[in-house]
Design a protein that fits this description.
It contains six helices and no strands. The chain has 130 residues and is mainly alpha-helical. Helix 1 packs across helix 5 and helix 4 runs antiparallel to helix 5. The protein starts with a helix and ends in a 5-residue tail after the last helix.
């Protein structure tokens, strides 16, 4: 039961969030319209547009979201998937903390599920700190 609550549920929730983000990003690149786009502050919109206008970063970000999300949802190298999306999660949390405060609940979900998974996979990360 503990494994279900502290590993499988956060892994699935986090993976699905990143898969939805990837699907929305790819859909927006193909059609110009988002499937899901929560309210964004004017500063947040400028930041997002800057990433999109770079030409390379937005597709790269969505591929990372897709790979990390698939890894977590299908439980294939989930510690690697979490490490892959960790910088993205940090950027999302900082984005919402400084540019788009209405997204802080989502940032909270990312922090909680991410920390739960870091703890669950701590043995796999131990070699990084030796």
């Amino acid at each position: 039961m503990a494994t279900l609550l502290f590993v499988h549920a956060p892994r699935t929730i986090l993976g699905l969030l990143f898969l939805v983000s990837a699907a929305d990003g790819f859909w927006a690149m193909a059609t110009g319209n988002h499937l899901i786009h929560p309210p964004v502050s004017p500063e947040g919109r400028l930041f997002e547009q800057g990433l999109q206008m770079s030409g390379f970063f937005w597709p790269f970000l969505k591929v990372i979201n897709l790979l990390g999300g698939l890894s977590l949802v299908f439980n294939v190298a989930p510690a690697f998937g979490l490490a892959l999306i960790a910088p993205v999660m940090a950027t999302i949390v900082l984005f919402h903390a400084f540019l788009n405060p209405q997204g802080l609940p989502l940032a909270g979900i990312l922090v909680v599920t991410g920390l739960m998974l870091v703890w669950a996979y701590r043995d796999r990360y131990a070699a990084l700190f030796r």
